[in-house]
Amino acid sequence: MSGTVSPRLVGVGVGPGDPDLVTFRAVRVLRDADVVFVPVSDGHGPYGPGAGGDGTAVPGRAEMTVRSHVDHDRVVRLPFRMTGDADYAGPARTVADALRRGHTDSQRTVTAAAVTVAFATIGDPNLYSTFTALAAAVTALVPDLVLDTVPGITAMQDLAARSGTVLAHGTETVALLPLTAGVPAYQAAVDTFDTVVAYKGGRALPALRAVLAAAGRLDGPAGHAVYGAALGLPEQDIRPAGDLDVDATGPYLSTVLATRRPRWPGRAR
Ligand SMILES: C[S@@+](CC[C@H](N)C(=O)[O-])C[C@H]1O[C@@H](n2cnc3c(N)ncnc32)[C@H](O)[C@@H]1O
User: Fold this and answer.
1) What is the pLDDT of residues 111-167, one digit of tens each?
2) Which of 59, 73, 144, 194: disulfide with 63, CB 3.0–4.6 Å?
3) Any idea what the Cα angle at residue 59 is, between residues 55 and 64, rounded to 5°?
């Protein structure tokens, strides 16, 4: 098969928000790609209003990180409705067009067969990422497509480091789930696993806090929980989950870690 080339779509994880938390490989792929798509909200999803669908939207988190590592002008905004029932057909057509067209600018001409298109996504591209559904939709439109991903640092890892939380040790078990799976699913995870990570929990924070309080896992000998919002961003908020008001909600970029043990010696912050 040597000499055979195919259009390539690469999902690149760019970490939770801090531009320092990006791998060398991610930077290399983003710099070399013929086109780098970055998702922006069309204004209807959980990122809320303030982002339009006309390509002039305020930059998303992924774009901010990409632009701190890349100074070429091949970064293109891709408007999305960022909800669970999102329609990926429109964005997929845009990406497929870029793959089929190849790329020409003052520096390079790349045929469609040899084109590499990157899609930057927060955290890791294989963990609750828009990239998964987008890539499936693009694959249906570009049959000879080669799909790759570059791993990224997840919000869970960033919160563990920033809060001094050991995620798991020895035989401890870990569960990760979105609060959009429902409070009963979260309750079951808290009953079953030593460490439970909750994503997408901003709106359900009061229910999550109540589950942890009833299990004695907010802060005490039965466990400890830490809340982190907007990690790595100017508005970052990290605190023990027990310090949250009982009815406090958080932004979409909220993560909660709950362990089944008190704080690790020497890690208290
Ligand atoms: C669509 S998922 C993306 C997960 C991402 N692919 C990852 O690997 O971490 C979005 C959720 O990730 C978490 N998240 C991502 N970035 C975050 C940040 N900067 N601060 C806090 N939570 C974040 C939040 O739970 C948010 O609801």
Assistant:
1) 877 899 999 999 999 999 999 999 999 999 998 999 999 999 999 999 999 999 999
2) 59
3) 135
Residue to probe by mutation, ligand 1, list 122, 130, 157, 176, most atoms within 8 Å of CB: 122
Residues 127, 191 within the same domain: no
In the block, which residue shows the tokens 């020409």? Answer: 104
Indicate whether 160 belongs to any domain: yes
Query: Which residues' Cβ are closer than 6 Å to ligand 1?
Result: 16-17, 122-124, 127-129, 154-155, 199-200, 228-232, 252-255
pLDDT tens, 92-104? Answer: 999 999 998 877 8
- Residue at 2 is within a domain: no
Closest C-alpha to ligand 1, atom 12: 199
For residues 180 and 203, is the Cβ–Cβ distance under 8 A?
no
Pocket test for ligand 1, best of 20, 128, 131, 249 (most atoms within 8 A of CB): 128
What CA–CA distance (Å, rounded) separates 113 from 101? 9
Residue 222 in domain = yes
Atom of ligand 1 nearest to the CA of 125: 6
CA of residue 15 to ligand 1 center, whole Å: 9
State the pLDDT at residue 269. 57
Question: Is there a single domain that holds both residue 81 and residue 184?
Answer: no
Clarify whether residues 168 and 240 are in a common domain: yes
C-alpha 17 – ligand 1 centre gap (Å): 9
Residue 264 belongs to some domain of the structure: no
What's the domain count of the chain? Answer: 2
CB 132 within 8 A of CB 147: no
